[in-house]
């Protein structure tokens, strides 16, 4: 995997006031923090989707959901392994996935939301994959060669995820009375977490400015057009915007993440000396 | 009993230049989802570059009871095959 | 993943046309394939439908014990492997349901039969997965036993079943190896890991031997199934083969097989092994396995809670087909 990009990254709190938040979380460089955001988003959503295995509405849907989960776990592995290399403290993707606590996770609130019913799961997928697709398209030009390479592989995966989710949102919205109600509820549940996806906090601004990351705010219009068109085809209402719920990128999460981590991290934490 | 979706037959082209080949079937509510189900079921190991799905109810099949009338008459048309003709060995390119 | 003969069918009814029956038997004896629209005796159709759907149910219910550990897999690599493996099982269930459907029973009817308790599935999945080592043991022993049973079925007389088995066998080749690899890591690991591995072998060994079904003496339909090429080796033959192959694998792991009677018999060129607790086997077949109720509840819940999704998509399709017609 490629090494650090050829620019100076501020270390710890030395990068001026803008990076106080990072210093608080204990990360010692910005790229590391950025890679955690990418890796944790994929990891946590992959973990959530894998909960469906064996319980989907039909065998075929089981296969679809597992395919998406597999893609996401693969992305997480690439991003987190690279994060470990960048950090340079001997941690690999597994150490990062299985030995961090809530405050050190950098995923957004959207991906840690419970699956709920199939409509809620598809609402989350549409909103997230639509964003991830635009993000990865922008990351194709990242100065970090590994980020660009993973984005190139992953953009195809998430394009498929987004299309599949859109097909389902449309069918459930325009299906029966019950499915329509559930689909609207699913969107209402997830909509609160949309602003966080596009939030340009200091780290996001820094990586965008230095050609490592993407200008997230600039992705919003394309995302809006697409998501609104799907919701319209589904004959549903676009939920009302509310005061943004932020915090995931700083380690301040919903209550759900702790429980997810309890399950996911149970073995490596119970047997800290074991390898598997 | 709650209902299941209709059945679709799935055909996969394994690589460019080859015909689509029947690989199995999936249940799906409509053609678009049938394609997705076919993709998620039958191309997980790089088995294909193109997919067809056809509603199973739309397949018209020959009746095995008519096998003899359908297929046996071809059996004695040996003159349709190149090996039927003997050409001397020293005549080339034919 | 696996099929055993768990329910009996009566011998061929005397009502079939004797000429057709003779021609059919001759085709099968000549190792020809029977295809969906070909004439076949009712008992053949019934036996096959039962066997294939039972096999499909086993794949689908078999997702549950291993699915129980996907969210707790101890590394990213293990998580991806297990997820892919359990997903394969969904795929195998699907191939097999498709094969059974060609015999004229809908998947819906088969699922209904499973949920009502009328249809059976492999007894092995009614045991709980307690530790991560169980995931190793299932891959190694349960998939090992399944492969032994399924490989000969690639040459079974019914075309769609044989083709499904070819696909299943090809995909399943990694399942057993990943299980054994888990066991290798555990057996060479910390004392706690070794304990887990040995305990898993202790719990899964006997249920794995039961997977091959009742002894030949109590398996009255074996002769007919063998004649019809829907079974190609007897239960006891396969079981013996499994024991002979698996015992050295356990030795290589440094684990002990929980059978004090187990010993190599030079004369027969195979292992002697202890008596299987057939009472336990029949109890589990009857639905009295330790987690049988949990398994059935999970399947019924998934189906019932998914009903609104299936209905919604069907309603959408109908609505839009009508619109397309009107346009």
Automatic annotation (TrEMBL), chain A:
UniProt-listed GO biological process terms: phenylacetate catabolic process
| Pfam families xrefs | PaaA_PaaC
Any one GO CC term of this protein is:
cytosol
Highest taxon above the source species: Bacteria
Alphabetized PANTHER family for the sequence? 1,2-PHENYLACETYL-COA EPOXIDASE, SUBUNIT C, PHENYLACETIC ACID DEGRADATION PROTEIN PAA
Instruction: State the protein's name.
Output: Phenylacetate-CoA oxygenase subunit PaaI
Name the species this protein comes from. Sphingomonas parva
Gene name on record?
paaI
From TrEMBL, chain B:
Please verify whether the record's keywords include Oxidoreductase: yes
Does the keyword DNA damage feature in the UniProt annotation?
no
* Assigned EC number: 1.14.13.149
Could you tell me the superkingdom of the organism this chain comes from? Bacteria
Q: Which Gene3D superfamilies match?
A: Phenylacetic acid degradation B (3.10.20.520)
> What keywords is this UniProt entry annotated with?
Oxidoreductase
> Could you tell me one molecular function GO term of this UniProt entry?
phenylacetyl-CoA 1,2-epoxidase activity
Enzyme class at the top of the EC tree: oxidoreductase
Under NCBIfam families, the record lists: PA_CoA_Oxy2 (TIGR02157)
- Name listed for the protein in its UniProt record: 1,2-phenylacetyl-CoA epoxidase subunit B
Q: What is the lineage of its organism?
A: Bacteria, Pseudomonadati, Pseudomonadota, Alphaproteobacteria, Sphingomonadales
Automatic annotation (TrEMBL), chain C:
Q: Which Gene3D superfamilies match?
A: 1.20.1260.10
The record, for SUPFAM superfamilies, names: Ferritin-like
What GO molecular function terms would the record report?
phenylacetyl-CoA 1,2-epoxidase activity
**EC main group:** oxidoreductase
- Gene Ontology CC: one annotated term: cytosol
Kindly state which keywords UniProt assigns to this record, in alphabetical order: Oxidoreductase
Catalytic activity, EC: 1.14.13.149
Task: Please give the coiled-coil regions recorded for this protein.
Answer: none
Presence of keyword Nucleus: no
User: Alphabetically, which GO biological process terms does the record hold?
Assistant: phenylacetate catabolic process
Q: What is this protein called?
A: 1,2-phenylacetyl-CoA epoxidase subunit A
Encoding gene, per UniProt annotation: paaA
